[in-house]
Design a protein that fits this description.
By secondary structure, this protein is an alpha+beta fold. The chain folds into two domains: 147 residues, D-amino Acid Aminotransferase, Chain A, domain 1; 155 residues, D-amino Acid Aminotransferase, Chain A, domain 2. The chain contains seven helices and 18 strands. Strands 1, 2, 3, 4, 5, 6, 7, 8 and 18 form a nine-stranded antiparallel beta sheet that branches. Strands 9, 10, 11, 12, 13, 14, 15, 16 and 17 form a nine-stranded mixed beta sheet that branches. Strand 16 and strand 17 form a beta hairpin. It is globular, with a radius of gyration of 20 Å. The protein binds pyridoxal-5'-phosphate (PLP) and 2-OXO-4-methylpentanoic acid (COI). Pyridoxal-5'-phosphate binds next to helix 6.
Length: 340
């Protein structure tokens, strides 16, 4: 194993020792297999390659200061992958199998879990793909469910610091009745041009309004949005955004901290009224937003003048990671010890 500079890891891919796989054939899941091969042999006409019948998930394993390794709310990710599977006519992976495979792949790759002090984590990526050869547009008969892990650093360079975002009107990542609420590759393919455009303009990430009216806030790249004002945590309600496990947790933590929580449509103009704003997700954790620019109107909604995260975002961030790292009592029962 080459020496890894854990503190300077990017959000990328590093080969680890094992992945775990399970095949769905003849209407049922087979035995879980442990595999050290990184590639997947596949038919060139596999449905996932042509028609995008695939689902994925994202979680992290945390090496904690008490020596344990924990994972966070994985049953929520199992439930979301089951919802995605129903949405794309794929077989559901039962929660017990999903969790069991996570525990197994994390334990098998223990030496790849970054040390606590580094701030890096082990990213867990489950993938479900339709593998049957077919040229007609129909659901696959056979599927592969695989989970691999890879050590990752922060999603944005600089970790917990503020970033500039730009509203995109030329590209939509998903439609109101489309697949935005599912974690499917097609949504991310649809986001590549917007993301490249945002980077070319000097922004960290693109910011989406609802696709139909271009009036309400949807998402920030691959993360949910929240705004803070008048002691209230406000987050969008939309059929075209991914229901984020991190956001769901932050809504609870905000309530625990005595904030009001509102999940509702947020018109773009309301951005001007927020004292703080952030992007949240497994990869992003909380990424506080410095400002959101709207090139069409020339408006700039600024949330941080000194480049520092706001006090409530900071409190929420500290609370969330303290639970994930087993530092504060896990009163909601969100974590599971995978390695003692
Ligand atoms: N929105 C999108 C489009 C995402 O890809 C993600 C990442 O999973 C999120 C939001 C955040 O979801 P979660 O907190 O469950 O990781
Ligand atoms: C995550 O937050 O886990 C994501 O999936 C975001 C991105 C890497 C797709």
């Amino acid at each position: 194993m080459e020496k890894i500079d854990w503190k300077n890891l990017s959000f990328g891919y590093i080969k680890t020792d094992y992945n775990v796989r399970c095949y769905y054939r003849d209407g049922k899941w087979g035995e879980v297999e442990v595999c050290s091969e990184e590639t997947i042999p596949m038919h060139m006409a596999a449905v996932c390659l042509h028609y995008g019948q695939e689902a994925f998930e994202g979680m992290k394993a945390y090496r904690c200061p008490d020596g344990h390794v924990r994972v966070f709310r994985t049953e929520e990710n199992a439930a979301r992958m089951q919802a995605t599977a129903r949405g794309l006519l794929m077989p559901e992976v039962p929660t017990e199998m999903f969790n069991g495979m996570i525990d197994r792949v994390v334990r098998l790759n223990e030496r790849w879990i970054p040390p606590y002090e580094s701030g890096a984590t082990l990213y867990i990526r489950p993938l479900l793909i339709g593998t049957s050869p077919q040229v007609g547009v129909h659901p696959s008969r056979e599927y592969l469910f695989v989970i691999f892990v890879t050590p990752v650093g922060p999603y944005f360079k600089g970790g917990f610091s503020t970033n500039p975002y730009v509203i995109t009107r030329d590209y939509d990542r998903s439609a109101p009745l489309g697949t935005g609420c599912y974690k499917v590759g097609g949504n991310y393919a649809a986001s590549l041009k917007a993301n490249q455009w945002a980077h070319e303009q000097g922004y960290s990430c693109e910011f989406y309004l609802d696709a139909k009216e271009k009036k309400y806030i949807d998402e920030c790249g691959a993360a949910n949005f929240f705004g803070i004002k008048d002691n209230t945590y406000v987050t969008p309600k939309s059929t075209s955004i991914l229901p984020s496990v991190t956001n769901k947790s932050l809504m609870q933590l905000a309530e625990d901290l005595g904030l009001k929580v509102e999940r509702r449509q947020i018109p773009e103009e309301e951005l001007a009224t927020f004292e703080e704003a952030g992007a949240c997700g497994t990869a992003a954790v909380i990424s506080p937003i410095e400002r959101i620019d709207d090139p069409e109107t020339g408006r700039s909604y600024v949330f941080s003048k000194d480049g520092k995260p706001g006090p409530i975002s900071t409190k929420l961030f500290n609370k969330l990671i303290a639970i994930q790292y087993g530092i504060e009592p896990d009163v909601h029962g969100w974590t599971r010890v995978v390695i003692d």
